[in-house]
Write a structure and sequence with these properties.
By secondary structure, this protein is an all-alpha fold. It has helices spanning 18-30, 35-41, 46-59, 68-101. The termini are far apart.
């Protein structure tokens, strides 16, 4: 009983549409309420809302960093790079196998 005191259950991971995120960012930008208040009103984590606001500023050119499209492209390139590395590894193993067989 004592071990569980003070520990919060982790939130289940949720996903949100770009439209929803844009609405939340707009509410934060208006300045009527703080990021904390907006997060509480919509049952969101303050950290997530701050990241959405920060990413919107990057996308608008108001802050340095990778834009959303650049992040997507980078993720796709990393996935492709991983797949190509696996392909090369398979080809190396096949080459070694057939080199042994022909001796």
């Amino acid at each position: 009983m004592m071990e569980s005191m003070g520990k919060k259950k982790p939130r289940p991971r949720r996903s949100f549409t770009p439209e929803f995120k844009a609405e939340i960012v707009e509410l934060c930008r208006r300045g009527d309420r703080s990021i904390r208040e907006v997060a509480q009103d919509f049952d969101l984590t303050e950290t997530a809302v701050r990241q959405w606001v920060r990413q919107a500023e990057v996308d608008a050119g108001q802050r340095d960093g990778l834009t959303s499209s650049e992040r997507e492209e980078l993720a796709a390139l990393r996935r492709e790079n991983q797949r190509l590395r696996q392909d090369v590894d398979i080809l190396k193993r096949a080459t070694a196998f057939f080199a042994k067989e022909t001796r």
